[in-house]
Amino acid sequence: MRIALTRAVSPEIARCELTHLDREPIDLARAAEQHAAYEHALWELGCEVRRVRPAPELPDAVFVEDAAVVLDEIAIITRPGAESRRPETAAVADALREYRPIRAIEAPGTLDGGDVLRIGRTLWVGASSRTNADGIAQLRELLRPFGYRVEGVAVEGALHLKTAATLVAPDLLLVNPAWLPATALDGMARVAVDPAEPFGANALLVGTRALYPAAFPRTLERLQRHGAAVLTVDASELAKAEGGVTCCCIVFEP
Ligand code: CIR
Predict the structure, then answer these.
(1) Local confidence band at 186 (pLDDT 50, 70, 90 cut-offs)
(2) How confident is the prediction for the chain on average, in pLDDT?
(3) Pocket residue to mutate for ligand 1, from 12, 19, 60, 79, most atoms within 8 A of Cβ
(4) For a FRET experiment, which of 18, 79, 114, 194 has its CA 20 to 30 Å from that of 104?
(5) What is the CA(221)–ligand 1 centre distance, in A?
(6) How much distance in Å is there from the Cα of 82 to the middle of ligand 1?
(7) Per residue in 80-115, pLDDT tens?
(8) How many Cα neighbours within 13 Å face the side chain of 153?
(9) Is the beta carbon of 240 within 6 A of some atom in ligand 1?
(10) Which residues form the catalytic set?
(11) Which of 198, 184, 195, 192 is nearest to 168 (CA)?
(12) For residue 167, how far is its CA from the centre of ligand 1 (angstroms)?
């Protein structure tokens, strides 16, 4: 059974990092309820949910995806681009240690897991405001022995690469073309978000099914027309903290 690592919503979530959104009140109880429903959906998709030890003092700790990149052979602990988020990684490393050898991105490199989109043996890595060229180069070197290709992708207007593009089926990308170079990601088959739903490009593919926010019905219709198998969740509270459905877990085979 796949494992999905998650982490509780911090009571300090109102002080989260924000880059592209204005600050809005976040209802903590509602965020925690939606997070529990999200964990349940992960279970429905065949994952055993394991929680990283909570960090109530770290506002963005729920967005556990940014702290590590887990592959079959190794786990890379990131060095998040936002300084406030760097203390999040130690507990994630502790949780991963029993499953994988651990390596880490070092200063001056920065890398957020939200910038890393793996498609087969290629890791596409967003050169974003959070991930720098040194972080991408370190990732490439760390993964060279395992035969992975690591390619940088310019990301404009989105927080992370996976805000702009994710997989919705093993052979189908969901993209917001406004935030991604037209030639990015090897010309793979893709469906675009509805233009009225720019934040709708973040889906979490687990096996052959995808978890998707209920907030983007027009794009959802497009996905269904393309035959994607999609399960929806209400992720609206954490969306105010610029989190999507990929951000709140790290899924891997034990
Ligand atoms: C941040 O700005 O770092 C958080 N408020 C949101 C992080 C979302 N993470 C992700 O998309 N992977």
Answers:
(1) confident
(2) 97
(3) 60
(4) 18
(5) 26
(6) 9
(7) 999 999 999 999 999 999 999 999 999 999 999 999
(8) 31
(9) no
(10) 160, 247
(11) 192
(12) 18
Q: Report the candidate in 229, 240, 227 with the shortest Cα–Cα distance to residue 203.
A: 229
What gap in Å lies between CA 146 and CA 236, rounded to an integer? Answer: 38
Mean pLDDT, residues 169-173 taken together: 95
pTM of the model: 0.97
The answer to whether the CB of 14 is under 6 A from ligand 1 is no
CA distance 185 to 119: 9
Distance CA 164, CA 123 (A): 15
Residues 6+ apart with CB under 8 A from 193: 174, 175, 176, 200, 201, 216, 219, 222
Contact 39, 60 (CB under 8 A): no
> Would you state the pLDDT for residue 184?
84
The mean-pLDDT minimum among 56-70, 161-175, 183-197 falls in 183-197
The residue with tokens 């995806």 is 65
Q: Which of 64, 159, 204, 245 to mutate to test the pocket of ligand 1 (most atoms within 8 A of CB)?
A: 159
3-class DSSP state of 138 = helix
Note the residue count of the chain: 254
